[in-house]
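Let us begin with a simple case.
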Amino acid sequence: MNAIESVSDFCPYCGEAIELLVDGSAGDDQYIEDCEVCCRPMSIVLSFDEEEGVSIRVYAENDAY
């Protein structure tokens, strides 16, 4: 089974679609990544579940999550 998975969401600033490659073997994670379109920092929160797979939540850098 390949642990690398592609997930999609939208930038909380400009609304453009973003695609991220995530490593499911790493477990839950959270980090900051710049939007490829508007270059603003987004907080990325990843959750992994064996049945559901990966879920992603994307927030503006200073939003509470």
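The second case is a distinct protein. As before, the sequence precedes its structure tokens.
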Amino acid sequence: MNAPFALPMLAVREADLRGARDCAAIEAFLHEAAGSTPFQLPGWSRAVVRGCGQRARYLLAERGGMVAGVLPLIDIRSPVVGRSLTSVGFAVEGGIVASDPAARAALEAAGWALAQRLGTPTLELRGGEVAGEGWTRDDTTYLGFVRDLTADHDTELQAIPRKQRAEVRKAFANDLIVTVGRGDRDRAAHYRAYSESVRNLGTPVFPRALFAAMLDELGERADILTVWQGDRPVASTLSVYWGGTMYPFWGGGIREARELRANERMFYAYACHALDRGCRRLDLGRSKAGTGPAAFKKNLGYPSRPLTYWRRTLDGSPPRTVNPLDPKYARKTELWKKLPLPVANLLGPLIARGLG
């Protein structure tokens, strides 16, 4: 009779994100793992450390010296909204990715043990599933928008619902130019358009250093798409690429973008650029349910899906919240909209680097 086969012992440790060996092993695992996103890449965590000054606590499960799962955590500290251990910070998704239930459970337990050891009030996992007790499930706040791409630029235009397609055609008449790049001019244009966009929404802008770090750390997996009116950037987005999917992530436009239909032009350009890069899907990220941005994405033909976030707190108290739609932030949001842009760009990064 053959002896029963025993799996090698499972061990969880903190990865060395500055070491080439750990990072290469993690990337190789994520490349093959179902459900992985660019937000679990070591470069994402390194960029957050460089750009926002937060600390990465990247947990790695190994079995027999081989990666069996990952849990990228960012220890986010903010004097404004408190502290959390988040998988993964400054991202839409990025919870546990594991090759089997045992590895997933081990990483979940290790994440909670780390939160307890650090005294972090909130542990948040953005996506995935959890098995343990004590978690609060939130699948009503955010919606994700993703769809498969069509065959070419022309069919992408036809895939846009008729009413919004008419708006894209109006944009074509406005002599708008689309560029894609990663250089200094692209970075400056992106920050100009994006920072004004979030100021107009009443939200502090992330540090410019975060966007620079993302481009540097992710290399050819990230770029900037900008819509120009002459020499003026009117809309711009920093996107990342992973697993055949384009993720337009940090994007927005100046106030005149609406009149110029620059946002419609930019969203159509996403699809064209994604096809040119060989992508098969386009993921427009998250928007809060019931908001204008969510309706805009739906009107462009992108089906919505609830995003599930899991939170657990040390004492069972309500978890940290940074939702600007929370009534307690309403007055601050309205005041922020009225700030001169240079003032908002000076103060915003000091606050936003701790929001995550």
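The two ends are 55 Å apart (CA to CA). The chain is about 40% helix and 30% strand.
Keep these points in mind for the review questions at the end of the chapter.
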